[in-house]
Amino acid sequence: MGRVRPDKPKPMRPSYITKEGQARLLAEVDQLWRVKRPEVTRAVSEAAALGDRSENAEYIYGKKMLREIDRRVRFLRRRLDVLQVVELLPDDRSSVRFGAWVRIGSGSGRTRCFRIVGPDETDHAPRYVSVDSPMAKALIGRREGDEAVVVTPRGRHRWTIVAVSYQPLEGDDGE
């Protein structure tokens, strides 16, 4: 009996990243490769010089750290190769698109401010929301004053777009 194979692999849609996000990932690669890896390599060399490596905790830990650094650098380099950097602002800057800063408000007076970015950037800032998130999907294409219903595991939430900008919004509430 043969293996079951799908007819065709699903085409991958492009992954987007902002120019700032790309710069952060490049800086991380540089930091790991030019600073962290040489430090750990020196520590491993010093630990190896102490003798028996099989019971040398510093040597074993250092080798593990080198593998983790190399793994992360490989991952980041491969990821950077396939990411598409979005540098140009959209023609219509009044609607929510990738890279936009958006302030939304609820009927109860609660407001939130965040930027819609690629999934590779969401861990870099607490106010970054992935373009693949339910919130971003509900807001993309809408304009200031429009309402959007966001469906999350916690239920449906109605938000009104208060402001859209492609520069950080002033007077952010910090949430």
Written description of the protein model:
With 175 residues, this protein is of the alpha/beta class. The protein folds into 2 domains: 15-85, Orthogonal Bundle (Helix Hairpins), CATH 1.10.287; 89-165, Chitinase A, domain 3 (Roll), CATH 3.10.50.30. Helices cover 35% and strands 23% of the residues. It has 3 helices and 7 strands. The strands form 2 sheets. A 5-stranded mixed beta sheet has the order 5-4-3-7-6. It has a two-stranded parallel ribbon with strand order 1-2. The longest helix has 30 residues, at 19-48. The protein starts with 14 loop residues before the first strand and ends in a 10-residue tail after the last strand. The mean pLDDT is 87.
Itemize the secondary structure elements and their pairings.
Layout: E1 15-18, H1 19-48, H2 57-82, E2 83-86, E3 101-105, E4 111-117, E5 128-130, H3 134-139, E6 147-152, E7 155-165
Parallel strand pairs: 1-2, 4-5
Antiparallel strand pairs: 3-4, 3-7, 6-7
